[in-house]
Amino acid sequence: MELQKYFSKFLLKKRKKKLTERDSFLSTELFKILGAEVQNVELYREAFALKTSSKNSDRNYERLEFLGDSVLGTIISCHLFQTYPQANEGYLTQMKSKIVNRKNLNKLGEDLKLTQLLQKQSVVIALGENICGNLFEALVGAVYLDFQYDTCKRIVLERLLTPSEIIKLENKIVSYKGLLLEWCQKKKLNIKYETCEEMQPNKAIVFRCHVWFGEEKIANATETSKKKAEEKAAQRAFYILNKKENILGSTKAL
């Protein structure tokens, strides 16, 4: 057993000596995040490589993001199924959505400071607003290929997305628009969103959304996109209605 440990350490040191300075930094930082020594650093180099306009560019994070999305979904689905044995399909689906939705994945990626692991680019590339979540999924994909499923699952649930963090999401509202729709369907009420473009004094174009319940206009909001305006208006409508109707209590009873 001691001999095995000796050779493991020897091989690890030998492998590290062969790494470039950049790969050595990547391996060290990943060990802090994962709590495990990465085996194939090339996977993580790909996971933190951005897409470029060059036709001859190396692989980027997108393929691993695709894989990580599926692996993460499976891990979370199995965890929820085992953790909430009495929950119905609707509740499990809602919980999974809260965990793997883009906003939450972005937060997880930001907390782990994954953009600091991006490979250096010869040209400056604008990072999209979802880059942190995309890199989080790419990291899960790389971990899956590097360690296989069981170890990947352990790393995800012990290091990247712990059960305590999942529990915190239980009562979190991900979409006010979806919550209002669910409540209206139960109460047999009609909800309608009217959204139009508006020109601001500084000539910037924004979207204004009005929320209607039947014949009553109950809230409105402006944002830089139609989707954001509707969600913001729905949030305001929720706070107004929740004081009167206790929407949260009604939807939990479904």
Radius of gyration: 23 Å
| CATH fourth-tier homologous superfamily of the largest domain | Ribonuclease III domain
Q: Please tell me what the overall shape is.
A: flat
Mean pLDDT: 85
Helix content: 55-70%
**Tally of individual domains:** 2
E-strand count: 3
CATH architectural group of the largest domain: Orthogonal Bundle
Question: Secondary-structure map with pairings?
Answer:
Blueprint: H1 2-18, H2 21-34, H3 41-47, H4 62-83, H5 89-100, H6 102-111, H7 131-147, H8 149-160, H9 163-168, H10 176-187, E1 191-199, E2 205-213, E3 216-223, H11 226-245, H12 247-252
Antiparallel strand pairs: 1-2, 2-3
Task: Describe the model.
The protein has 254 residues and is mainly α. The protein has two domains: 21-171, Ribonuclease III domain (Ribonuclease iii, N-terminal Endonuclease Domain, Chain A); 176-245, Double Stranded RNA Binding Domain (2-Layer Sandwich). It is 61% helix and 10% strand. The protein is built from twelve helices and three strands. The chain has helices at residues 2-18, 21-34, 41-47, 62-83, 89-100, 102-111, 131-147, 149-160, 163-168, 176-187, 226-245, 247-252; strands at residues 191-199, 205-213, 216-223. A three-stranded antiparallel beta sheet has the order 1-2-3. Strand 2 (205-213) and strand 3 form a beta hairpin. Helix 7 crosses helix 8 (149-160). The radius of gyration is 23 Å and the shape is flat. The N and C termini lie far apart (56 Å).
